[in-house]
């Protein structure tokens, strides 16, 4: 598959076969693709935390702890719905990779905004590499992934941030909904 095909075929999906384990070679290739993203002054201000199988449980429990604390005044019925939703945020794919902003303290030329943009490019590389390997993916963000319980599970420093969690797995491409995008010409101004 060439890069144009990967760009056009890439989709965010939650339709994974949880019982189909991914190869470590594929996971390593996906992370390797991330490290080829542009990085201003070569700060490479990223690190990756891979979770699969049972190793996802501490992450799930940390996410659940955040939700239970945030909604401690919710009714038991409402809390049960939130717990069920948390499964879809932490356990719905066989593999998850947390992408962490970790300032390169050895490179004083780093800039936070540039580093975050670089990490976004790294994540896009991961998604495209996954697509080229016929692996389904979704990039998820949100406060829960940067909560104190999750940061503790990931053994993160105070100044580190989870920029996103990439969920990966095998799926059935024909069940993935079509993506509708605005035509590029409508979003382009030539001057």
UniProtKB/TrEMBL annotation:
Q: Which residues cross the membrane?
A: none
Requisite cofactors: FMN
User: Nitroreductase domain location, by residue?
Assistant: 7-170
Q: Which CDD domains does the annotation name? A: YdjA-like
Extract one GO molecular function annotation from the record. Answer: oxidoreductase activity
Task: Work out whether the entry's keyword set contains NADP.
Answer: yes
Which UniProt keywords are present, listed alphabetically? Flavoprotein, FMN, NAD, NADP, Oxidoreductase
Please give the InterPro entries that the UniProt record associates with this protein. NAD(P)H_nitroreductase (IPR052530), Nitroreductase (IPR029479), Nitroreductase-like (IPR000415), YdjA-like (IPR026021)
Question: Which superkingdom does the taxonomy of this entry point to?
Answer: Bacteria
PANTHER family linked: NAD(P)H NITROREDUCTASE YDJA-RELATED
Q: Which family does it belong to?
A: Belongs to the nitroreductase family.
Q: What is this protein called?
A: NAD(P)H nitroreductase YdjA
Gene label: ydjA
